[in-house]
Amino acid sequence: MADPRWNMREYHRTKEDNVLLGLVSQDEAPVQEQEGGVIGGGPPTIGDLPSASQELSAEGTTVPDMDEIFVFPGSCSSCSRPLDTKMKRVVIPYFKEIIIMSTNCEACGYRDNEVKSSGAMSERGKRITLKVEDTDDLSRDILKSDTCGLSIPEIDLVLSAGTLGGRFTTIEGILDQVYDELSGKLFSSGDAATKEENATFEDFLSRLKDVKAGNRPFTLILDDPLSNSYLQNLYAPDPDPNMVIELYDRTKEQDDDLGISDMKLEGYEQDEGDEIPAGHSLETLKEEPEAEPLS
């Protein structure tokens, strides 16, 4: 449903742009750093996060506080003024631990929220198919990672990976976000679209509105090659009769797009293309002096 004659591109303002707009003064530093972290006993910073070795003591009694909110300083990507980004760890039952990050600039009003999955990378992708039959299904929790695609075949809705970024909300909530984004695009197109194109798009929005209101059943499909997405099972720990979860092997193209093919997990100390002669190891090669050139 893309308009070939409509295009929007966002970019980060430079410091010169912010000075010209009056958001910051010429002498104001873009980032104000404090030595020694947060002063005055404020919230913990990112440096205070427990490492994997610190989570449990030798007696196995030290457990991190999952309700604790961590704060670390930074600068706003829009106006360059100092701000705090808050981070909280949340455990989703029958899934995994996730990290929710929130940024809010009081100076210019910029806001950003991110959801990241923690833990090791899954070896296989996951496809979740849910038959949504009533309004109760719309209240299910959903975690859509930034690598997950979303589709509803009944109304020809297809969101590619990266659209909307990472979101942890309900099915109704994510459909509301999709509707707000697309409806704003319709009103922004103006005369760029023909009457026929606008009529087709308005019909699509009408069907999307019926879906998010629960007026018609539909099929929701999440396809995540990294298996970092989640749909709430209302019958957990028993299987959900309306949900099908499929695991699949990623294709080479998916590994290339995700950057997995370029990851070098073994032998990265040695440059590519270098070969170690037989009977030698990397350590012995480092110890052997180089031969002097012949005069």
Largest sheet: 5 strands, antiparallel
Counting H and I runs of at least 4 residues, what is the number of helices?
6
* Uncertain regions spanning at least 5 consecutive residues: 31-55
Roughly how much helix do the residues carry, as a percent range? 10-25%
Q: Return the string of H and E elements.
A: HEEEEEHEEEEHHEEEHH
Global Rg: 25 Å
The total of beta strands comes to: 12
Structure description:
The chain has 295 residues and is of the alpha+beta class. The chain has 6 helices and 12 strands. The strands form 3 sheets. The chain has a 5-stranded antiparallel sheet with strand order 8-7-10-5-12.
Summarize the structure.
The chain is α+β, with helices and mostly antiparallel strands and 295 residues long. The chain is built from six helices and twelve strands.
What topology does this entry show?
Elements lengths: L14 H7 L47 E7 L6 E10 L5 E8 L6 E7 L7 E8 L2 H4 L2 E4 L4 E4 L4 E3 L7 E4 H19 L5 H18 L5 E7 L5 E2 L11 E6 L3 H7 L23 H6 L8
Antiparallel strand pairs: 1-2, 2-3, 3-4, 5-10, 5-12, 6-9, 6-11, 7-8, 7-10
Helix pairs in contact: 3-4
Q: Which key terms come to mind for this protein?
A:
alpha+beta; 6 helices; four-stranded antiparallel β-sheet; five-stranded antiparallel β-sheet; 295 residues
